[in-house]
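Input sequence (414 aa), recorded before submission:
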Amino acid sequence: MAALKEQNKESVIKEGIKFGAKRNIGALVGAAFIMATSAIGPGFLTQTAKFTQDFGASFAFVILISVIFDIGAQLNVWSIIGVSGMRGQDIANKVVPGMGCFVAVIVALGGLAFNIGNIGGAALGLNVLIGINIKFAAVICGIIGICIFLSKNASEKIDKLVKLLGGLMILIVAYVAYKSNPPISEALVRSVYPENVGLLVFPTITLLGGTVGGYITFAGGHRLIDAGITGTENLKEIRKGSIMGILIASVMRVFLFLAVLGVVSKGVTLDPSNPAASAFLHGAGMIGYKFFGVVLWAAGITSVIGAAYTSVSFLKSIHPVIEKKENQFIIILIAVSTLIMVIVGEPAKLLILAGSLNGLILPITLGTILLASKRKDIVGDYKHPTWLLIFGFLIVIIACFAGVMALKNMTMLF
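Predicted structure, token format:
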């Protein structure tokens, strides 16, 4: 009898370990997708289409370089957040007292401004799909975002939704890329031997900021903390998750690039008001255009979720009420974003400001993370790889240059 009880006990322990491992994998994949889908917003689609038309096959080089830099930035951020078990703003406060509060406010403001554009992008997607009024569509999209955070086990639902919509976007764009028949061999050659390298500096910096700038850098790392996946014992999985997130966003970028390249290589000039929609229409006909509506809606709604969740996660340290009522604050942020979108319509100035904040925040946040990697009161006995540290500081220098350019954009507001 005693032997049977012991056997049952061992069985329960083994099942518990299996369940824990399965939960960890689900949370890691969810964190990777929330980071990736936060990056794949409406601006991501327009930006990729425009740069592909401007630089042709040589844009493959920009994508390759930005992916390498993106991986370097995310590996640094996810590693230190994962090992320390501390959110970005708390790490910043330890490195420079008060810096974390400053970063939290900037990220929250940037998240609010970007969310207005994300709601607008999702609304445009619905407009393309079923032709409803943009403002009415914005209200519907806002309600969808709010309902997700009103539900029980919101975190699990977010993980499932971003995986589903992220996968759907990639499949649709892959189909359009296939239909547009791009010159793949030329793209492969230009990825390592581009034309006019000097002209590719600006799009490279833009892609870096768009994929790991602002709140996006911390979307996945903060999700892991909420899931309880921290410590050096989970470091290997945490790093895998960071690379996975970048690769998901990069696969989407590559397929979108090929879809647009297939169109512009045939001499088609894209509509400057909506280059991505124009590419889908020319590449796969009316069904391609409707598919664009699905992709735009999915890109918008997943970015709404990612921006709202990560922005509020930065504010948790300011007051305990925010941590206790996290979902309510996320709902308020989505509601305010939706209201501004409905009232203002096209918040161009807010989006310029958001872009500027995005350019400014990456060197500050990544820089503090790199300094934190040498602080025992933050990472304990963990030894951060020297090559990763050097790579990180190289990205900080590049991001500083992007920040200077962002300041120039801010002057346009005044």
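Checked by second reader. The chain has 17 helices and no strands.
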